[in-house]
Amino acid sequence: MGTISASEVYCLIGEAHERGERVVVATVAHTRGSTPQRRGAKMLFFESGATAGTVGGGCIEAEVWAEAREALRTGESRLHKFSLTAEAASEEGMVCGGVMEIFIDAWQPHNAALI
């Protein structure tokens, strides 16, 4: 899974909304230090369980996916901070050592209601 262009992001969101499916867009909003992706990288999480794009892989994407599931459930968007500091990195087997802020943005079709 690789990076995704802005046009692909909006095309995929539009297709999901045509199906009546909610989508969460995770965007790397800020980075400090060594991180697996740069600011602006996006990943989409679909209600069906499918994904597109990447915000960094491994542990970060697992944590972002957990936050995305919560956003799909609640419809709430939030900024989340993920630490890849040396101490956390060594415990989790990561090698980056930086900090990422990722905006988790819940999108829902106009005709959908929150469950």
Count every beta strand, where a strand is a DSSP E run of 2 or more residues.
Answer: 5
Uncertain runs are none
Number of discrete domains: 1
Strand order of the largest sheet: 3-2-1-5-4
**Main beta-sheet strand count, sense and barrel state:** 5 strands, antiparallel
Beta-strand content bin: 25-35%
The DSSP helix count reads: 3
Feature tags:
115 residues, alpha+beta, five-stranded antiparallel β-sheet
Write the layout of secondary structure elements.
Elements: H1 6-18, E1 23-32, E2 42-46, E3 51-53, H2 58-74, E4 78-83, H3 86-92, E5 99-107
Antiparallel strand pairs: 1-2, 1-5, 2-3, 4-5
What do these coordinates show?
- There is one protein chain.
- The protein has 115 residues and is α+β, with helices and mostly antiparallel strands.
- It has one domain (6-107).
- It starts with 5 loop residues before the first helix and ends in an 8-residue tail after the last strand.
- A hairpin with a 4-residue loop joins strand 2 (42-46) and strand 3 (51-53).
- Strands 3-2-1-5-4 form a five-stranded antiparallel sheet, sandwiched between helices.
- The model has no long low-confidence stretch (mean pLDDT 86).
- Helix content is 32%, strand content 29%.
- It has three helices and five strands, in the order αβββαβαβ.
